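Friendly challenge for the regulars: who can give me the structure tokens for this chain first? No prize, just bragging rights.
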Amino acid sequence: MSALKTHKSRTALTILGIVIGVASVILVMSVGEGAERLILDQVQGLGSKTIAVLPGRQPTGPSDFAQLFSDSLTERDMQLLKRKENAPTIARIMPVVFGGETAFYGSETYRLTIFGATDLLAQIFDLKPERGTFLTEEDVRNQSSVVIIGDEVREKLFGFVDPIGQRIRVKGRSLRVIGILPQQGTGSLFNFDQMIIIPYTTAQQYIFGIKYFHRFIIESESEESLARTVKDIETTLRNSHGITDPDKDDFYVETSAELIERFGVITQILTVLLASIAAISLLVGGIGIMNIMLVSVTERTREIGLRKAVGATDKDILKQFLLEAVILTIVGGIIGILIGASLSFMSSLVIKYFIGIDWVFTLSGTAIFLGLSISAAIGIVFGLYPARQASLKNPIEALRHE
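First reply, four minutes later:
Bragging rights claimed.
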């Protein structure tokens, strides 16, 4: 400790490299875990009985990207799934179509996402208009030209004008505003702030000009019947599409549990990747410690010779210099953890209050353990060579060193 205090500036700069590296790793892991929790909470919010049926072959790589635009889900499929003899455990089914378009109101324009659905959308996503009403079965049946708008759409198109009862134009179709959604924030799986919701029949007929669906959102009667519901869906759609080999399915089914697992794996991979990039600064810090310790060994050659002259062994000298390196890195690790935790907390506040995402501050014990253990490991690994160089010095030549 006395040796480290002798050169305070050098010690502080050496520690700084470790502090930056550990703080970066802590920050990245904290933000990554916060993002994972946010996404999984959103998926869990759909309910454990929710099933999504998507067109095309399930993507397993970049080459399957085009399958996402398949037109394999049709009105006939939906009617077959509604029959109790085909799928008795289906409680509700909602077809979905969506796409990007430009909306016009007066001289204002705004590029938004159109979400074509039914009145079930409000129940599945717990959507309650801040003002006005939601879609009804009659709106869907009659292909009504009505629309519910998100908060950002309201702001961009209408400003201080009351939107209720006003009409916007999308692809030449006049849509009457019947409801306004409250601000949702960008933390949801679907950013309803930038969306308008219309009956799917209206979207198919007048906006997109299609006869197929982009999704089926299905709710099973119970969690216990979920597996049977999935099997009934697959069997019904295969019979409808004339498919005998499951490997040639032109659709795929996902449950909430599978979505949670998939999103969890993706966020974990991203967190590990970003943490690995941040850990590069730890490597740089370790090299800096090795350089400083080598300089220190050269400067303290006479000290090493004197210690050996009064009985210090090679092992004693090795432990002394190795311990100095470990102290440097552990102190840097502790400071880095404190700074990283503080930055993570401040980041969560910024995200929550300025961006509008319901972000929860997360600091796992794993991140703290990694910070301390990596710091100690760097001290040992990068301090070993300088410490060994010090221990091998000849005491007589060391005492003669000027």
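The two ends are 24 Å apart (CA to CA). Residues 62-68 have pLDDT under 50 and may be disordered. Your move, everyone else.
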